[in-house]
Amino acid sequence: MDTAPPLSPTDRSTVRRGAKRARTDRADLHAVLDAGLVGHLGVVLDGAPVVLPTGYGRRDDTLYLHGSTGAATLRAAATGGPVCFTVTHLDGVVYARSAFHHSVNYRCAVVHGTARTVEDPQEKLLGLETLTEHLAPGSWTATRPPDRRELAATVVLALDLTEASVKIRTGPPGDDERDVPAAGDPDPVWAGVLPISTVLGEPQPCPLLPPGTAAPSRVTGRVLSPPG
Amino acid sequence: MDTAPPLSPTDRSTVRRGAKRARTDRADLHAVLDAGLVGHLGVVLDGAPVVLPTGYGRRDDTLYLHGSTGAATLRAAATGGPVCFTVTHLDGVVYARSAFHHSVNYRCAVVHGTARTVEDPQEKLLGLETLTEHLAPGSWTATRPPDRRELAATVVLALDLTEASVKIRTGPPGDDERDVPAAGDPDPVWAGVLPISTVLGEPQPCPLLPPGTAAPSRVTGRVLSPPG
Q1: What are the chain B neighbours of A86 within 8 Å (beta carbons)?
Q2: Which residue among B16, B17, B222 places its CB closest to the CB of A194?
Q3: Which of A139, A148, A154, A175 to mutate to test the interface with B (most CBs of B within 10 A)?
Q4: B46: domain CATH number?
Q5: pLDDT digit of tens for each residue in chain A (228 aa)?
Q6: Number of structural domains chain A divides into
Q7: Which chain A residue's Cα is nearest to B13?
Q8: Domain that holds residue A170
Q9: How far is A78 from chain B (nearest CA, A)?
């Protein structure tokens, strides 16, 4: 059960466009974040936005991000500049009876804030475990843990989920009444939704594995989170 | 055949991290953009980055974006502020023998620049046609075109693909030699790739359609672009 307080939007996290699509339940935010594997991190570098795909993992209301100490976007985030982290799932193409009302069904979480560089060694390991388990459940204990050199080469950032918004569109097109033909029209324009989903394929073993090595259940039994 | 010049990266579009994953062929840029439906637009608002999912369409080396005249991010982009537009495809989870070398296979295009607000009525219609046909091929001619009020409510932006970079990761994990066990290890850690793909489902007709209205081939016959 999710007992966290509801999302309390600040000015910039208030959904203005399509406000009827906004959700204010923190459980919706968690569900959208947990269902994704990669988000888009935005930072400002030399006055211009830079948006790059980034892995992440959530623990309660903290989002952990990580990257190389050599990555300029990570450095910008690590030095206390404002960041925006967005996770989007595309759930369908919405075909309408007018070009204008074409749309997409989607779930989107947007987090604003300032990231904190995780310096504490215990929390850094916890952050990396959270990230690894989000990307590949079961891998943290099944594989070699990071050594000192690897830890030194990795920046782990923590981003509070305090200032966040969620938008979700579902359902059929929102056509104008004038565009919906009366019953009996012999040739109505088709309208509806073409669903889109993300699926996992057959595991492809590394060529360096001994032939016949079976993939473990943490890989073969993996399921992606369905739409909330 | 793609005869455009190769990507000539500027300082900020030069891929620094994982440079061996960088592509410099303009055809790669086009392929990554064409295979996506939604990108992430980053702008700077009050000094902070804002990253939102945005539809788009490509015509030669121009990317068209659109949105409501009421959207703050679109307004920021329309008034000449710097933008970053990123399209990412997630192709697989890369399971390594160490936590550190876990990764993802992906294709990502990042475009930097300044958007131009399309004022010319002819180009605005062309931009909207490009956007509509990218999202829903065949819809532009099959559905009611935008009227004057709808055109006035819509901002169309044009973004040149001059300053752009492409990164693509494919293939098995890049494990350290020390982590790959010698032949004969009775219980090797599984490593490999779990492929991820995006699939289309069965069309869901709008409840306002007369029962039995068949979905047209522009919907039922649609295929998503496969990975380059």
Answers
A1: 40, 51-53
A2: B222
A3: A139
A4: 2.30.110.10
A5: 334 456 756 767 766 556 667 777 899 999 999 999 999 999 999 999 999 999 999 999 999 999 887 788 888 888 899 999 999 999 999 999 999 999 999 999 999 999 999 999 999 999 999 999 999 999 999 999 999 999 999 999 999 999 999 999 999 999 999 999 887 888 899 999 999 999 999 999 999 999 889 999 999 999 887 654
A6: 1
A7: A50
A8: 19-175+190-220
A9: 15
Q: What count of CB pairs under 8 Å joins A to B?
A: 309
Assess if residue B198 is contained within a domain.
Answer: no
The answer to whether A51 contacts B215, with C-beta atoms less than 8 Å apart, is no
- The answer to whether position A225 is within a domain reads no
Yes or no, beta carbons of A201 and B204 under 8 Å apart: no
* Secondary structure of B112-153 in HEC code, one letter for each residue: EEECEECCCHHHHHHHHHHHHHHHCCCHHHHCECCCHHHHHC
DSSP of B200-213: E---EE-TTSPTTP
Please report whether residue B192 resides in a domain.
no
Q: Which residues on chain A are in Cβ contact (under 8 Å) with B147?
A: 100
Q: Tokens 């565009």 identify what position? A: A179
For residue A153, tell me if it sits in a domain. Answer: yes
Give me the interface pTM, i.e. the ipTM.
0.92
